[in-house]
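User: structure tokens for this one?
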Amino acid sequence: MSEYIHKSHNVTVLLYHFVFPAKYRRAVFDEEVDVELRDVCLEIEKRYEMKFLEIGTDKDHVHFLLQSVPMYSVTRLVRLLKSLTAREISRRCPHVKKQLWGGEVWSDGYFATTVGKHGDEQMIAKYVKGQGETYKKLHEDRQLVMF
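Assistant:
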């Protein structure tokens, strides 16, 4: 599961859910490709500051749940994951390259969202909105007394 990442000046828990469709939505993710993809992702973990919490493959797309650090933007993570996984899948599973004509593994598009560790959007919105309520109430009371 996710962990707090401690750096010299910050502590973060940044979780992302990505969905990458295969080029032309071709059904290329069989058991062999699934195993190779997971191996590639484990190698990526060793070189970059990210951790794959879950990887779910369907026949024509892949879901990733990963944790990373704030120095990687979403677009950088996507570009990094797509390029490294595509290169290695093409090399390790040549039958995939044949199925995809031009050799590209991933479609140009993707889905990305952040995932909350401690609650959903409504709960966090309520928490943020409630910040400073005690201070605001105290400040309003003092203004009433001053007039």
